[in-house]
Specification:
It comes from Marinobacter daqiaonensis. By secondary structure, this protein is an all-alpha fold. It has nine helices and no strands. It has two domains: about 1-80, no CATH class; about 95-210, Cytochrome c-like domain (Cytochrome Bc1 Complex, Chain D, domain 2), CATH 1.10.760. Helix 2 packs across helix 3 and helix 8 (about 175-180) packs across helix 9. It binds heme C. Heme C binds next to helix 1, helix 6, helix 7, helix 8 and helix 9.
Length: about 210
């Protein structure tokens, strides 16, 4: 019981840290786009702290949504300032990568036994060789950590990171796997017809069930 609580606490801390990198990117991008707007001083300090070249053209299309999101992102702000290194990588997601995380028109997923796929996906989930930065999915998502509440909804649905960084209004589950491959994992998307993608997607279905039952 005690150790359980302790673990939960650690995980929450961990996930909070990771959650922050996303809001920070958003805040920085928004501050770039709306620095002179009426959001008050709240945004400015973290914008300065995090300011690299993040607010360039890549994010200018976020301007329209920036208003609506700013209150929601607020929670990350306070702690965001120390996170200098986290936001660099997400800022420059190319149009090509944005397209590459979306199902292709000739999408033909690998098919296989769901159980066997989930089993494989579970192994891949902790495989750091999928990323270019030493992370595995597990680094952020161990024991159900690191997900926003949207994870409990049926797919397709809207996910903050997919919207902010990739401009996608809605994602399917396999697209969400690809989003996490590209952004937090700093890797190429998996092949759309690969067993790996099918396996990770199937395992995420299992994890979604667990998440719903928490
Ligand atoms: C550096 C941390 C990090 C890593 C590594 C990571 N993710 Fe995520 N993931 C996140 C964050 C942050 C969110 C929440 C995004 C949001 O709600 O805007 C998330 C959300 C998700 C979601 C749920 C989205 C929803 O519906 O709300 C899935 C599924 C997911 N990740 C799968 C994966 C998979 C599969 C991997 C490995 C290939 C992975 N993640 C690696 C940080 C990470």
């Amino acid at each position: 019981m005690n150790t359980d609580n302790h673990r939960k606490e650690l995980l929450q801390k961990l996930s909070r840290n990771f959650m922050i990198s996303v809001p920070v990117m958003t805040v920085v991008a928004m501050a770039g786009a709306t620095a002179v707007s009426d959001h008050g001083p709240g945004l400015i300090p973290s914008a300065e702290a995090g300011q690299g070249e993040a607010e360039g053209e890549a994010h200018s299309e976020a301007e329209g949504e920036a208003e609506g999101k700013s209150e929601g992102e607020g929670e990350g702000e306070g702690e965001a300032q120390g996170e200098g290194e986290a936001e660099g990588e997400g800022e420059g997601i190319s149009e090509k990568m944005k397209a590459a995380v979306q199902r292709p028109s000739d999408y033909q997923p690998h098919e296989g036994d769901a159980r066997a796929l989930a089993e494989k996906g579970k192994a891949l989930f902790s495989d750091t060789s999928l990323s270019t930065n030493g992370l595995s999915c597990q680094t952020c998502h161990a024991n159900g950590a690191g997900y926003a509440d949207t994870f409990s909804k049926d797919y397709p649905h809207s996910v903050e990171m997919a919207k902010t960084d990739f401009g996608l209004d809605q994602v399917t589950l396999d697209e969400m796997v690809q989003v996490c491959m590209v952004a937090p994992m700093a890797a190429q998307p998996l092949e759309w017809d690969s067993e790996e993608l099918a396996a990770l997607t199937e395992y995420m279905r299992v994890e979604q069930e667990n998440f719903r039952q928490r």
